[in-house]
Amino acid sequence: MIRFKHVSKRYGDQEVLSDLNMTIQKGEFLVLVGPSGCGKTTTLKLMNRLIPLTGGSIEIDERNIETLEVESLRWNMGYVLQQIALFPHMTIEENIALVPQMKKWSNEQIKTRVQELMALVGLPYEEYHQRYPDALSGGQQQRIGVARALAADPDILLMDEPFSALDPLSREKLQDELLDIQANIQKTIVFVTHDMNEALKLADRICLLNDGAIEQMGTPQQFYETPKNDFVKQFMQRKKVTVKQLMKPGISMEAPTIPSSTDVEELLHLLTNTSLVHVIENGQKIGTIEREHAFRQLGHYLDGRGDVS
Ligand SMILES: Nc1ncnc2c1ncn2[C@@H]1O[C@H](COP(=O)(O)OP(=O)(O)OP(=O)(O)O)[C@@H](O)[C@H]1O
Ligand SMILES: [Mg+2]
Predict the structure, then answer these.
(1) Cα(16) to centroid of ligand 1, in Å?
(2) Ligand 1 site, residue 37, Cβ cutoff 6 A
(3) Which of 103, 99, 125 is nearest to 114 (CA)?
(4) Beta carbons within 8 Å of 67's beta carbon, 6+ residues apart
(5) 186: helix, strand or coil
(6) What is the H or E stretch that residue 301 is in?
(7) Distance between CA 226 and CA 13 in Å, rounded?
(8) pLDDT averaged over consecutive 10-residue blocks of the chain (309 residues)?
(9) Is the CB of 220 under 6 A from ligand 1?
(10) Which residue owns the Cα nearest ligand 1 atom 28?
(11) Quick one: pLDDT at residue 33?
């Protein structure tokens, strides 16, 4: 669990973060979103102690990070920096192997891990492991950055716009991988993006920052249903999605039914009270909508990748 208590950060006269309070649960996928300059990167840097706090404190599992040894704090936190920061004089393999080496894993263990991660991010080991970073495109370097952050299997992942340089397909693939990783091994992830659609797709909870303060914090569902003010609404501009696009085929269990022509707004409202509905068309049940699946799908359509009608 990570807890921010009255955290503030100043640069000279400028207050960049003011009285930030939030708790991130173990295993939670928290997405920090907000306009450029609102303090997202600063928030991550504070957690990693790349920069000192001006006021307040940050605790990890009830321990103030300032009382922890900085190396062990960082080894336990994978960090994908916003500016790609691979070491230029090291090969791709050496870059990824860095923290496992510091942790004194065996060579065999490290090699297996590097191969596994390179496959995960779609850069085959044989082809790429001996290259130097400047022989990779920006998007490829970004993917190696993700692999490096995952390398030593940290409990906490800090990711600062990790997919910003990727084409939509690679981006979608890595988003899905990341959701899988988190579902399977319950990492605590703090993910920064300025893209609300990405936030809605990935987040367990979203923290929307504006000018160094939290504008709204809650689940994607809460953002859809109860955006707090015009600023939040502006971030939530969405396209028209139909009920059928949120549906999974197949019928299971008893559940309320809705016609397929139901308005999505109405569906979302219904899903606050029930986690499952069946969709009816011409008197036949044609599919099922599950709350969680539907919200993930909604993020997907908002990305503009589905056939939005
Ligand atoms: N070293 C620094 N010295 C002075 N001001 C800084 C420094 N680093 C950041 N800032 C300022 O702090 C504010 C927050 O910066 P930060 O990098 O956290 O924004 P961000 O939300 O990550 O933005 P972006 O989406 O553009 O990456 C900005 O106004 C920035 O100019
Ligand atoms: Mg930033």
Answers:
(1) 7
(2) yes
(3) 125
(4) none
(5) coil
(6) helix 291-302
(7) 35
(8) 97 94 96 92 95 96 94 89 85 93 93 94 94 91 91 92 85 88 88 90 95 95 90 72 71 81 82 85 86 74 45
(9) no
(10) 37
(11) 94
Q: In the numeric block, which tokens belong to residue 71?
A: 């190396």
* Single-letter residue type at 202: L
Cross-strand partners of 8: 55
Tokens of 296: 């993930």
| Token output for 12 | 């000279």
The stretches of 151-286 forming alpha helices (DSSP H) are 168-185, 196-202, 220-225, 230-235, 264-270
Structure token digits, residue 304: 């503009």
Q: Could you give the CA distance from residue 87 to residue 105 in angstroms, rounded to a whole number?
A: 20
Contacts with 112 (C-beta within 8 Å, 6 or more apart), sequence order? none
Distance 85 CA to ligand 1 centre (A): 18
Alpha helices, H only, 39-188:
40-47, 70-75, 92-102, 107-120, 125-128, 138-150, 168-185
Place of tokens 């090291």: 90
Q: Is the Cβ–Cβ distance between 29 and 191 less than 8 Å?
A: yes
Alpha carbon distance, N-terminus to C-terminus of the chain: 41
